[in-house]
Amino acid sequence: MEKERFRVFPESVGWFPLIWMSYLLLPAYNLTKFSTMQMIVGYILLLIFAISYRNAYFATKHYALWVGIQLGILCYLSIFYSYLFLYMGFFPASFIGWYEKKKGFLVSYLILVGVMVITIVTHIDSLLSDNNLGHLLFFFIILVAPFGMRSIAEKSRLQEQLNEANKKIEQLIKQEERQRIARDLHDTLGHTLSLITLKSQLVEKLIDKDPERAKREVNEVQQTSRSALRQVRELVSEMRAIKVVEELIEVECILEAANISFTCRGDTSLSKVSLYKQNVISMCVKEAVTNVIKHSGATKCSIILEQITGQLAIHIQDNGRGVGETYQKGNGLHGMEERLSIIDGFVNISSIQGTLVTITVPIIEKQGETEVMG
User: Fold this and answer.
1) How many CB atoms are closer than 10 A to CB 274?
2) Whose CA is closest to 222, among 210, 230, 234?
3) Would you say 347 and 337 are in contact if contact means Cβ atoms under 8 Å apart?
4) Any idea where the Signal transduction histidine kinase subgroup 3 dimerisation and phosphoacceptor domain is (predicted)?
5) Lowest-pLDDT choice from 85-94, 180-189, 288-297, 363-372
6) DSSP 178-229
7) Distance of CA 324 to the CA centre of its chain
């Protein structure tokens, strides 16, 4: 186990404490004016004061102890030596301001006030005779200092909490990004690879029975694989946002490749809907169509876009076997729900002469414009 390197002060505070400690040279000089015994005792107390000052920067558990030692030495030197030692009060005053708990702050501050008052009362004659009432202004500054330091300490702690919160947010963003990539891989590549698998199985069956059709199917497999490659490139480049009208064109190609006829009705431009929100809707439409190809056994699929007051509804209908009353949600449906929740939308699935998937997104109409909420 590596031995911890000795440090005079924490690296985080830099050279400031060491520079501030140089002010102890003034009380050290004042001690030379007293008797030899008083001077020796004074220097010992000054050394202990300096040690307590240094240790307070590192202390967590014994913080109050080191502050208390400083206050005790300040009290002794100020009362029994000279009121000038009250200037050492700037040292404990700064530490008092760094108390996290209000109780510790108040107790220490009241002790500091007590030391100041007792010292001034004890040496009032010296203050009056020497016309040194100007010292009272500096003593008042010492009493105010803990409140200023406490304000700085609060801001520092809040900044630390903010930094910690930002780290947690960064972790959550990374986690969400992983989930988004997983959803995008499923939504974009999952259906394409499934289609390639189906086509490959069909080619295997047709290669002897109908070679010409098998060749056509192979060509479609090649086109689909190129589409998958393009989707991978889009994912790597953060996936460009896809408009609904663009997605419907691709949906038509995919359905035709799966021998499923396609019809579409309604205004597909959605010109008042933001590109980001159209991308969310497009991904959900793609997932619904993927499920039609993989699970429905349908021969027909229709998409209807319907805009009514306060809502945009997209209906994806097929004539397949339906989902049944006890169907279970897969990753695709969960992904659709998560995406739509971002723009306050939702999805509903029912069996009406096949499967009907309805994607509903709330909209706001104002001043002749239509905007999707979210």
Assistant:
1) 14
2) 230
3) yes
4) 177-240
5) 363-372
6) HHHHHHHIIIIIIHHHHHHHHHHHHHHHHHHH-HHHHHHHHHHHHHHHHHHH
7) 42
CA dist 66 and 89 (Å) reads 14
Residue found by looking up tokens 């992983």 in the block: 178
CB–CB of 92/67 below 8 Å?
A: yes
Dist. CA 151–CA 156, nearest whole Å: 9
pLDDT given at position 188: 64
Residue indicated by tokens 């998560």: 338
- Report d(CA 227, CA 149) in Å as an integer: 64
Inter-residue contact 294 to 194 (CB < 8 Å)? yes
Q: Which residue from 289, 246, 292, 277 is spatially nearest to 341, judged by alpha carbons? A: 277
CA-wise closest residue to 48 among 19, 78, 31, 71? 71
Q: Is there a contact between 355 and 318 (Cβ–Cβ < 8 Å)?
A: yes
Q: In this structure, which amino acid lies at residue 251?
A: V
CA 13 to chain centre: 27
Task: Tell me how long the chain is.
Answer: 374
Other Cβ atoms less than 10 A from the Cβ of 276: the count is 12
Token pair 């690879």 is at which residue?
A: 193
Phi and psi based region of residue 354 (left: phi greater than 0; alpha: psi -120 to 50; beta: remaining)? left
The model's pTM is 0.46
Residue corresponding to tokens 């590596």: 2
Question: Which of residues 138 and 107 earns the better pLDDT score?
Answer: 107
